[in-house]
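Hi V.,

Quick status before I head out on leave. The structure for the redesign project is tokenized and pasted below; the design run finished overnight.
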């Protein structure tokens, strides 16, 4: 049989719950503009009309905040960086191998005012904030930051479009040419140094993409361990015992050796004395 005290607690709890619900409902009725928080599903990979992106298992990196939508194919070692959008909703988009789409860049296609996919070759660099709209970028080409390559245009092999330039619809940029301006025009041939720098940049971006992929794949448990390890490394005296991956010889319940884990000035007074002397010496030197 339930005691009197328990019955009083249960009754008080029920009354408090009902009072809370009544206050909540009263607050809702007083709202001028009703608003409800909703969970937003991830837009990293989104299907359109039943067509999902095809991503190589060897793709280097797709940022958590990037959006790859619809009929899109990503090749080996390619990367799509933070805030970038690759949207193949009304036509297909193909990215070759070792191609990078920079932060906030946009790749789209055309169907209404023309019928153009976006085809991007191998070893192509698309800079941050650039727009590639229903165009073709051949192997080794570079589209600079905030540049635009518009409908039906073709940027030839190893060609460079300078940052901020606009390649107007239907334009053909020849192989190895350097284009700049708005509208973009051929300025000269790309130099050997520029082509070498572009190739080197592609290699560096791939290494960076793999590092970002490794970090972004960490779960909460691993991130917590990293934070604890960083704090330990920045606060632990370098002359004190340093943690290692080796199992302690006197391990207790998988928590390590008590003599190492729980060492203190009480159990190891000589260590405490040395630490105190060192701290006093450092304070004296600062004066």
């Amino acid at each position: 049989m339930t005691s009197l005290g328990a019955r009083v607690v249960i009754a008080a709890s029920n009354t408090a719950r009902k009072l809370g619900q009544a206050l909540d409902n009263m607050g809702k009725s007083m709202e001028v503009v009703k608003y409800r928080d909703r969970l937003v599903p991830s837009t990293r990979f989104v299907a359109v009309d039943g067509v999902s992106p095809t991503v190589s298992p060897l793709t280097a990196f797709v940022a958590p905040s990037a959006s790859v939508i619809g009929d899109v194919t990503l090749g080996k070692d390619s990367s799509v960086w933070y805030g970038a959008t690759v949207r193949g909703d009304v036509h297909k988009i193909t990215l070759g191998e070792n191609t990078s789409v920079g932060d906030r860049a946009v790749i789209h296609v055309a169907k209404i005012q023309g019928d153009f996919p976006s085809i991007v070759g191998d070893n192509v660099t698309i800079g941050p904030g650039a727009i590639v709209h229903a165009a073709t970028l051949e192997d080794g080409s570079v589209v600079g930051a905030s540049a635009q390559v518009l409908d039906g245009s073709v940027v030839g092999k190893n060609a460079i479009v300078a940052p901020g330039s606009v390649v107007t619809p239907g334009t053909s940029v020849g192989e190895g040419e350097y284009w700049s301006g708005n509208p973009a025009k051929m300025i000269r041939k790309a130099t050997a140094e520029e082509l070498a720098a572009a190739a080197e940049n592609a290699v560096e971006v791939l290494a960076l993409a793999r590092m970002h992929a490794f970090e972004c794949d960490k779960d909460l448990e691993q991130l917590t361990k990293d934070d604890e390890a960083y704090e330990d490394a920045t606060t632990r005296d370098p002359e004190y015992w340093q943690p290692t991956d080796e199992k302690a010889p006197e391990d207790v319940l998988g928590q390590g050796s008590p003599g190492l884990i729980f060492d203190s000035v009480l159990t190891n007074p000589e260590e405490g004395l040395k630490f105190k002397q060192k701290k006093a010496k450092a304070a004296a030197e600062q004066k």
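Above is the designed sequence. Residues 156 and 174 are 5 Å apart (CA to CA).

G. will cover questions while I'm gone.

Best,
W.
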